[in-house]
Amino acid sequence: MHIDVLTLFPDYFTGPLDASLLGRARVRGAVDVGVHDLRRWTRGVHNTADDSPYGGGAGMVLKPEPFFEAVDDLYGGPQDRPRTVVLTPRGRLLDQRLVEELAGEPGLLLLCGRYEGIDERVHRGLAHDEVSIGDYVLAGGEVAACAIIEAVVRLLPGVMGNVESGTDESFGEGLLEYPHYTRPPEYRGMAVPEVLRSGDHQKVRRWRREQAIARTREVRPDLYERWRGDAQSD
Ligand code: 6GU
Fold it and tell me: What would the mean pLDDT of 211-216 be, rounded to a whole number?
């Protein structure tokens, strides 16, 4: 998969993209990420990327031209342009279903906003999707773009060593994950639940499922209700 990112802060991406799973995925060629500095497509002595909003109000708005000109330069034409996602707190909430959908694309273009937002014509003219990573406000879309990249890349073929660990996890079935333990069997007065050491795989499976259900019900009643509804309709 090829992922392009347009941002005023390309430095944001150097750490996350080089580390751990993402770094290995890039070295192996499973993904190739191009981080492009929007300033390349700004004009004038000041390389201005933003301007004050029509109609007044606080803050600054990112100008449309750098986004459109970057897209013109990066791709051959409309057919060549990958699925384009604008990161914005007003977007659709990112969830595992959308991550899976994005992971099925041959490429992605992620557009990062800053300040009060991006000129609406970028949304109208370039965006296939508008995506938010949660109901809180970040200073810009960069952290959200990193979240999308990491969530998508770990689903790509050959990226995760253990194939099962890609699916047997939170949200796989609409439930949060069960608790994990490793050695030692007791630590600072906290013991590993006996069932996990019993060697009875069926009991272990049942216990994990119960834990996942109880945990989901307690911390994410919204997910729990949806899971119950899905289970009943099967
Ligand atoms: Cl994608 N951008 C910003 N600025 N804030 C956010 C967000 C995105 N998602 C949640 N908060």
Answer: 98
Q: Which atom of ligand 1 is nearest to the CA of 141?
A: 2
Q: Which helix (H) or strand (E) holds 72?
A: helix 64-74
Phi, psi of 190, deg, nearest 5? -110, 120
How does pLDDT run across 222-233, given as a tens digit for each residue? 999 999 998 767
pTM, full prediction:
0.93
> How, if at all, do strands 190-191 and 129-132 pair?
unpaired
DSSP 93-158: EP-HHHHHHHHTSSEEEEEE-BTTEE-HHHHHHH-SEEEESSSS--SBSHHHHHHHHHHHHTTSTT
Amino acid (1-letter code) at residue 75: Y
Query: What count of other Cβ atoms lies within 10 Å of the Cβ of residue 75?
Result: 16
Residues with CB under 6 A from ligand 1: 87-89, 132-134, 136-138, 140-141, 144
Q: For ligand 1, what atom is nearest to the CA of residue 132? A: 9
To the nearest whole number, what is the mean pLDDT of the chain?
94
pLDDT of the residue at 163 = 57
